[in-house]
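Final paragraph of the annual report: two paired records, presented back to back.
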Amino acid sequence: MTYTISCYPKNHAYHETFFEVIRFIKKHNDHYRFLTIHWSRFEWMFARDCMKDETLDQIIIFRNEDNEISGILTFEDDPGTWFAIYDQNPELKALMVDYFDTHFEGDLIIPHDPFITTLLEQKGYEKMDWMDPISWFSIKDFELPKPGGYQIRSLEEDYRLEEIHHALWLGFNHGPEITYTKQELEDRKSMTSSPHFKKKYTFAAHHDTHYVAYAGIWFIEGSKTALIEPVATVPDHRRKGLAQACIYHAINEVKKDGAEAIFVGSNTKFYQDIGFKLYDASYRYTKKKNG
């Protein structure tokens, strides 16, 4: 098999190459592979406008003889650490490792793969004491929580950029002082209007006029897997079951539309307590330091 290598275009618009990458990753996700770099994680990076045009050519695409994507080296937010996603072909794996070692200085994240691990070790890489976990929702039947004093609504029912900003700014501990600049609200609009974002899969807990908890799920109808991202609760409203309520409502909606498995990129106690179990993990390899 002969492969051609190309760089991702220096254009973070939603063009055909973007959709090719999404379809390629989703193909693997539907076979429960490479779930730690779920297709939605790639789209979420573009939706948050974290992928800058000047660095996009450091996403590398490997195409087979039919001009179909067979492998990708991609980073998250900024180059320095890359994820490898690939078809199961030894020649392709060797080519990708050679390219990475020759062209990049940084770390490579891969799933458990003895073949690639051996190739990396031969080139002087070692496994770090770090893993990127993925957990799956293990509860088949569940009731939708109804926290007293709060209403749980989807963004399809109530969509306000100022309140999305309120919940995420405070929920991710950016500080008590919130500004609502035009650019900040445009950023929230971008986050919630990417090609596969669905308002009906994102829920917020309402208290008075504010969103005080927020949880979304990414899912494409006709596929098998869904991923939760992001989840946040305003500090004054934590430990009241609000995040769980938003997550359960979102899970209920994607299951109605055919999702077979719901995942989250975490294995914290919070997720364990609400029904998630560790499913898999990816591992980081770094070049050994001389001396």
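The closing record of the year follows.
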Amino acid sequence: HTRKDGSTYPVDVHLQLSMIGKTQVLVAIVIDITELKNYTENLEKTVELRTQQLSDALKAEKKLNELKTKFLSLVSHEFKTPLTSILTSTSLLSKYTLTEQQEKRNKHIESIKSKVKYLNAILNDFLSIERLEAGEVKYNLTEFSLSKLINEVIYSVSGLLKEGQRIQYPKNIDGITLTFDERILALSLSNLLNNAIKYSPEGSNIEIVVNEDPKMLTITIIDEGLGIPEADQQFIFDRYFRASNVLITQGTGIGLNIARQHIKNLGGEITFVSTVEEGSKFSLFIPTSKE
């Protein structure tokens, strides 16, 4: 319907047969339904929005259930293997009772220690996820020597090196100091080096390169390993994700996720480039600007 000012508005028209005297006429009843139409449109939009929200919630719940299933499967696998090894070593220990068998006893004791350490590392990773999600992580910024930290990290992972593998120490870093969370940087570097060792063959080189500028320190880990398939690269920092070419290799798929979250919380970043059968290059960016 048209108003006097030329604008239009929706109406509902009812025709009713009536009599005026002896003349039969049609009476038109015109009702302005602007508010009713607006209400209907708003209701439709609300229903559409709620339907989309419900759909999103169902998808999120499905994804969460899939993650839970994957998580339980991972935990079961990651715990079962070392626990079986511990049980085996414990059983064998009881058989080596002679003094001259001490070397064999020591071998199994070291195996047990190694597996317990591995299980403890997994539990710490799971606890880190919980603290990160709850926002309960408190960072401790201190000034420390980069060369000292890298020395300690290399020493901690040296026992994991395969036959002939070598870690090339970075050049010209003796005078570099950082103000950062030392524990988090050590954790992140350990994770990157562990992965480089795990997914690289015997006799390969693992190189650590450090570059410094006024605003950023970059630590790059370069390996000659399996590399990450291109189709998997967009998911590599997702929790529990494991590349398709390493599924049979032991791992939880949470180390990179945790390391990156910590580093990003502290203003840094972790990036990578990778080529299958050639290797990967992971770069850790640490802010150094005092601004």
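The longest helix spans residues 34-93. This concludes the annual technical report; the extension proposal builds directly on these records.
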